[in-house]
Amino acid sequence: MNLLEKVLEYIFLPSCGVCGKLGEGYLCKECEKELNKYTINCNDFKQKTDILHIFQYKELIRKLIIQYKFNNKSYLYKTFCEFIVKNKKAFDFIKSYDIIIPVPMHNRKKALRGYNQSELIAKELAKTAKIKIFTDVLIKTRNNKVQSSLNKQDRKNNVKDVYKLVKKEKIYNKKVLIFDDIYTTGATIEACKKEILTANVKSVGILTLAKDLL
Ligand SMILES: [Zn+2]
Questions:
Q1: Å from CA of 94 to ligand 1 middle
Q2: Chain centroid offset of residue 177 CA
């Protein structure tokens, strides 16, 4: 944190993104307990795996993510990150990678929303875990349909050839973690993974904020 950020944080005391309580950072203890009820495998995350989903996409989590994406509550990324970083297993998982790449959003859509929700979270995680974040390596070449409006087969076709790797050398021989907000059928993130694997990386992992158990 630079001096300006410290001063700003002092003036604008952080509040809990879920309930608004002041003085306990971006996630108060009570809400943390509440969020803990929705974790999937962070707490009993024993075996070595390359996929980690933090929450189940339902009830409170679903509500928060929808607010985060569509109701302009971009500040919620701080709350999500605070939760993830405090979870030792999840944080260790992130730190075991060299680079994090958020699933890209098409430029036009990003301009419309004002932010890429996955990028905000990935940036904060990268900063805390001291790993690199690249947002210019994987790009979205066209503005396709919204995945949630489609069935499983159509989702696969919808993301076909949509993501493109443009600076392969930046991730050569690295351990790359792809980050997305919601995992449903996995079509989006698998399409990204397939593209990243063409760059001779050391390994590719997947991290999502939530998984829709359907
Ligand atoms: Zn709270």
A1: 25
A2: 10
| Shared-domain flag, residues 29 and 72 | no
Same domain, 18 and 80: no
pLDDT value at residue 1 = 66
The Cα-based distances of 128 to 5, 123, 156, 164 in angstroms read 15, 9, 33, 28
Q: How many A from CA of 186 to the centre of ligand 1? A: 31
CA of 153 to the centre of ligand 1 (A): 39
Ligand 1 center–CA 58 separation, angstroms: 18
pLDDT digits (tens, 9 = 90+) for 56-84: 999 999 999 999 998 889 999 999 999 99
- Count of structural domains within the chain: 2
Whole-number Å distance, alpha carbon 38 to ligand 1 midpoint, is 15
Q: What gap in Å lies between CA 138 and CA 17, rounded to an integer?
A: 30
Check whether residue 64 and residue 159 sit in a common domain: yes
Do 11 and 80 share a domain, yes or no? no
How many angstroms does the Cα of residue 71 sit away from the middle of ligand 1? Answer: 19
The domain in which residue 10 lies consists of 1-36
* Domain shared by 173 and 92, yes or no: yes
> Residue 28 corresponds to which tokens in the numbers above?
């108060």
Q: pLDDT for 16-59, tens place per residue?
A: 999 999 989 999 999 999 999 999 864 444 555 799 999 999 99
- Residues listed for the chain: 214
